[in-house]
Design a protein that fits this description.
The complex is a heterodimer of chains A (202) and B (71). Chain A is mostly helical and 202 residues long. Chain A has helices at residues 4-11, 14-32, 35-51, 59-80, 98-105, 124-127, 131-143, 146-156, 162-169, 173-201. Chain A folds into 2 domains: 4-83, no CATH class; 86-201, Arc Repressor Mutant, subunit A (Orthogonal Bundle). In chain A, helix 3 (35-51) packs across helix 4. Chain B has a domain at 1-36. The radius of gyration of chain B is 15 Å and the shape is elongated. Classes of the chains: A mainly alpha (202), B mainly alpha (71).
Chain lengths: 202, 71
């Protein structure tokens, strides 16, 4: 095990850790809606993971592990502190079952209902400079069922590959495909209804 | 013939791994004829761009600094 030292060195490189910590805080903050709680949870998760840093031979493995720890911490906090669950979760869509969602979007032949057919979005890049847009995006992310939001963020936010997510979450590729599909369907629908359509009619 | 529900599922999968040839072909055919799904496909790419911008530090409107990354 001569590669041990170099591996440990690269896993604890300041630039890597700083970026990792930033991603974790965003992830935790999104779930907890509380900056200081998020920072505490991240601190604990990072310390716990780094204690065992030697066990990881790749950065992606450490990343997956550290997020697994963080996820558990967040789940504990949410269970203990119901009040920290964003009130946005109670509104708008989370209580809609997937079946209702599909019935709302598609007819019995699997085609779009006319009024639900996706329209053209005007260049989203200009919207990204609008802080109100990001508030709407936050609400839409939080509207998703917890599991959808988490897997979607792992894929799109942390840019983990499908196979990394599957082995970390112990789910099949098929189940991940289904979850990501539903997450994207919901997120798209929410943004269309709450932002792009309003823009168009304004 | 593929319907919109099946097409949207494939468009989501396409964001995570390459589709097999027959899936690609029938999706392409569907997209040529369905403007709703054509827009949906663009939205999948927009969502990725939006989420990555969000992950990089979002929210603060920085005028003139809004170049998008090329990945």
């Amino acid at each position: 095990m001569t590669q041990h030292d170099t591996t440990e060195h690269s896993l604890t490189a300041p630039a890597f850790l700083t970026e990792l910590r930033l991603q974790m805080i965003k992830f935790a903050n999104l779930q907890l809606q509380d900056q200081s709680l998020a920072e505490d949870a991240v601190q604990e998760a990072l310390l716990a993971a780094l204690k065992n840093a030697q066990a990881f031979n790749r950065r992606s493995a450490l990343k997956t592990w550290v997020f697994a720890i963080l996820k558990n911490k967040i789940a504990d906090l949410l269970r203990k502190n119901v009040r920290y669950v964003s009130t946005d979760k109670l509104k708008g869509g989370q209580d809609m079952s997937d079946e209702e969602l599909f019935d709302n979007l598609f007819n019995d032949k699997g085609r779009w209902h006319v009024q639900e057919r996706p329209g053209k979005w005007k260049q989203p890049y200009t919207d990204m400079e609008n802080s109100h847009f990001w508030r709407v995006f936050d609400v839409c992310l939080n509207c998703m069922p917890e599991k959808y939001g988490r897997l979607f963020m792992m894929r799109e936010f942390l840019e983990l590959t499908s196979s990394e997510i599957c082995s970390n979450e112990r789910i099949s590729v098929n189940s991940l495909n289904v979850t990501l599909y539903r997450a994207r369907l919901r997120l798209r629908e929410c943004l269309e209804n709450r932002w792009f359509q309003k823009e168009a009619t304004a | 013939m593929m319907n919109c529900k099946e097409a949207t599922a494939l468009m989501s999968q396409q964001m995570d791994h390459p589709l097999i040839l027959t899936e690609r072909m029938s999706l392409k055919l569907h997209l040529m004829m369905c403007s709703g799904c054509h827009n949906f496909n663009q939205h999948m790419h927009d969502l990725r761009e939006i989420t990555r911008t969000y992950a990089k530090g979002k929210a603060q409107p920085k005028v003139g600094e809004n170049q998008h990354s090329s990945n």
